[in-house]
């Protein structure tokens, strides 16, 4: 009778870095209180699907996990809702050291660079106040992901009010 051997997986030490969503182009009120300072960077994120990077060094010899949320992360697990059309973005805050590490490791990926004349899906903005005031509206409107949902207005779709 053959015996089976079990391989043990070794789990590498990993810490979670929370990215804070502080606003969107679709809602006018702030989600959470924005952080201010030179050690915090605000990013414009127009990704259709969230992106997780688990290879960012944490300065202690281990790695940490940095997650960039998707435009429609709020709909995750919901049975109803309308997907956000192209030309919108989330504003996310991340520590400057983590952002520099992300750029160093993943900076050549397509989401961080202009492609075929379209702006990048993830980019640093000067300040959250400027972003909320519409300083980046033209650039955000030009972002194309290739996964945009059909426009509900063109299809005569109305949101269910739960009545």
Q: What attributes does this structure have?
A:
23% strand; three-stranded mixed β-sheet; 163 residues; 7 strands; 14% helix; four-stranded antiparallel β-sheet; alpha+beta
Strand order of the largest sheet: 2-6-3-7
Mean pLDDT: 80
Fraction of residues in helix: 10-25%
Tell me, briefly, the overall form.
Answer: globular
Q: Please state roughly what percent of the residues sit in beta strands, choosing from under 5%, 5-15%, 15-25%, 25-35%, 35-45% or over 45%.
A: 15-25%
Radius of gyration: 19 Å
Helix/strand-derived category reads: alpha+beta
Question: Main beta sheet, described?
Answer: 4 strands, antiparallel
- Helix/strand order: EEEEEEHEHH
Summarize the SSE layout with pairings:
Elements: E1 14-17, E2 20-24, E3 40-45, E4 51-57, E5 63-68, E6 90-95, H1 96-106, E7 122-125, H2 128-133, H3 137-142
Parallel strand pairs: 1-5
Antiparallel strand pairs: 2-6, 3-6, 3-7, 4-5
Verbal overview:
- The protein has 163 residues and is α+β, with helices and mostly antiparallel strands.
- The chain has one domain.
- It contains three helices and seven strands, in the order E-E-E-E-E-E-H-E-H-H.
- The strands form two sheets. Strands 2-6-3-7 form a four-stranded antiparallel β-sheet. Strands 1-5-4 form a three-stranded mixed β-sheet, covered by helices on one side.
- Strand 4 and strand 5 form a beta hairpin.
- The chain is globular, with a radius of gyration of 19 Å.
- The model has no long low-confidence stretch (mean pLDDT 80).
């Amino acid at each position: 009778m053959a015996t089976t051997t079990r391989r043990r997986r070794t789990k590498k030490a990993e810490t979670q870095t929370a990215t804070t969503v502080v606003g969107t182009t679709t809602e006018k009120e702030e989600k959470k209180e924005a952080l201010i300072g030179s050690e915090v960077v605000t990013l414009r994120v127009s990704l259709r699907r969230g992106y997780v990077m688990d290879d960012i060094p944490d300065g202690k010899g281990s790695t940490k996990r940095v997650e960039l949320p998707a435009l429609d992360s709020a709909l995750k697990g919901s049975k109803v809702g309308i997907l956000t059309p192209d030309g919108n973005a989330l504003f996310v805050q991340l520590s400057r050291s983590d952002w520099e590490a992300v750029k160093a490791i993943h900076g050549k990926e397509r989401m961080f660079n202009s492609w075929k004349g379209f702006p990048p899906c993830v980019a640093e903005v000067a300040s959250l106040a400027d972003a909320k005031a519409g300083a980046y509206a033209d650039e955000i409107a030009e972002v194309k992901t290739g996964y945009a949902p059909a426009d509900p207005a063109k299809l005569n779709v109305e949101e269910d009010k739960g009545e």
